[in-house]
Specification:
495 residues, Rossmann fold
Length: 495
């Protein structure tokens, strides 16, 4: 239970520490780290650093995390130097920096390692389930609870949370690119720190490609890699990059109960592996009803937003892939999923993109995020829709998916470093379109141009073909905004 998690509690809070957690004293705090976590620490005359979780640095691909901490972070004098040293780092990890009486806590670029904090009870922890275990007296946030019960289940599948509030009054979520200061529990944005550096794919292709290759190689130097293959952009590029690694990988295609043998992910996944000339395995995922009750109990106890749909997959991974680091690529940083910013951003239009048009709670959370964005980095030139997607959607979707997989194996996203994200967000709008994306086409062709012969996420039904065509046209932002105006008037405020 509570696999690969951590918590930090003030010495005034009486806690019976969980078994299988290593407890470390930090000033007036107790840090508890679950035994399956990678754990690295270093101390010098200026600061003390603790890193919890799996991470690598592509420029130091032969160096284990604990040695990286000693060799690189040990030379840092302040938190800014720590952040700069971790700029290219990738993985699922959190960083705790102690400078005199001050403690700064931050996560990886998309908060795959989640951080929740309660200022009143002075507790910081990964998942809400862990918080429930540590704190008995929990006041409910009625607005958030109403959204959780009445809105989210009908528009998301368990990982579509929005904002920093939670269903508990005192518990807040630390969003990606935010850092937490102790002992006052203040929050500040630590990335990005400068205006966007406009570039193009021609100038950035080799740098991004080399970074991805070195990142995967660094992970492979920690443990054997497993790579999922589908018909999408991200897994295709991960497959292409992996062919250049020093050791073989375990390639697989998941066949879920609702999938037929001619599903595009299965058919194209097999074709990609055949083109690559690699051995692959088709995972015949069974029904969730066949999962042992003991595993179900741990799975749902480990993750507050755990979904039934991922239960059987997680169990299969626990049986067959537990010794691997699973490469689960989510590369939306290079695709403008929510649009390229033609329409000025407003809280309800951001919510519309997130499928929460007119939700009172979602609007309040989006307004809070947008106001902070305007004050802190509004003049940096970054597309607010892309940052909103990264800090809200990926900050929940990816984090929940990783938490669900925790009891099975270590899972990472090779695209999720601040270096890669900044490279992707600095590309022209025409290169980062969601449909017919040039970035991933060019990156994949760089490693294996034969993959370009197969379509990406093809659709065959007439309605889906029309929808895909419309979304690819320059007029779609206007069409989508008109739909938003219509829905906003018809639906009315709710939750």
């Amino acid at each position: 239970m509570f696999e690969r998690q951590f918590y930090l509690v003030h010495e005034n809070l009486s806690v019976n520490h969980l078994p299988n957690f290593k407890v470390i004293s930090l000033n007036n705090w107790s840090l508890a780290v679950q035994e399956k976590n990678y754990y690295s620490t270093v101390k010098n005359n200026n600061l003390e650093v603790h890193i919890i979780g799996c991470f690598v640095h592509p420029d130091y691909k032969d160096i284990a995390p604990n040695n990286f901490a000693k060799m690189v972070l040990g030379d840092c004098a302040n938190i800014d130097e720590i952040n700069n040293a971790l700029y290219k780092s990738c993985g699922r990890f959190l960083v705790i920096v102690i400078i005199e009486e001050k403690i700064v806590i931050r996560s990886d670029a998309v908060s795959l390692a989640q951080i929740h904090f309660d200022k009143i009870n002075k507790v910081i922890c990964t998942d809400i389930r862990l918080y429930e275990h540590l704190i008995n007296d929990r006041a409910v946030n009625l607005d958030a609870k109403s959204f959780y019960i009445n809105t989210m289940p009908y528009r998301a599948n368990g990982d579509g949370w929005i904002g920093e509030d939670t269903i508990y009054e005192n518990l807040q979520k630390l969003l990606p690119n935010q850092a937490l200061n102790l002992p006052d529990f203040s929050v500040y944005r630590y990335w990005p720190t400068s205006p966007k550096n406009e570039t193009n794919l021609g100038n950035s292709l080799i740098e991004i490609a080399d970074n991805l290759k070195d990142t995967l190689q660094a992970f492979q130097n920690l443990a054997p890699l497993s790579v999922a293959v589908t018909s999408g952009n991200d897994s295709r590029l991960a497959l292409a990059v992996s062919l250049s690694l020093e050791q073989d990988c375990y390639y697989f295609i998941d066949k879920l109960p609702e999938m037929k043998s001619n599903d595009v992910d299965i058919v194209i996944g097999k074709q990609l592996c055949d083109i690559a000339g690699v051995k692959y395995h088709v995972h015949d995922i069974g029904s969730e009803d066949a999962v042992p009750s003991a595993f179900k109990k741990v799975y749902f106890k480990n993750t507050f937003f755990a979904k039934n749909e991922r239960l059987a997959v997680a169990h299969y991974y626990s049986e067959h892939l537990k010794n691997y680091i699973n490469i689960c690529g989510v590369g939306e940083f290079g695709r403008s999923v929510y649009g390229n910013g033609v329409i000025p951003a407003s809280e309800n239009y951001l919510c519309h993109k997130y499928h929460y048009t007119n939700s009172k709670f979602a609007n309040a959370m989006a307004r809070k995020w947008l106001n902070k964005y305007k004050v802190e980095i509004g003049n940096f030139g970054y597309n607010p829709y892309s940052l909103f997607y990264i800090e809200q959607r990926l900050g929940n979707w990816g984090a929940v998916g990783n938490s669900e997989s925790d009891i099975a194996l270590e899972e990472v996203n090779p695209y999720a470093s601040h270096y890669n994200i900044e490279k992707f967000l600095s590309l022209p709008k025409g290169e980062t379109t969601y449909i017919n994306n040039k970035v991933f086409y060019a990156l994949t062709a760089h490693f294996n141009d034969l993959f370009s012969a197969l379509p990406v996420n093809p659709v065959y039904k007439f309605k889906k073909k029309i929808a895909k065509f419309v979304k690819a046209t320059p007029l779609f932002p206007i069409i989508d905004y008109l739909i938003f105006i219509y829905k906003g008037k018809v639906i009315g405020k709710f939750d």
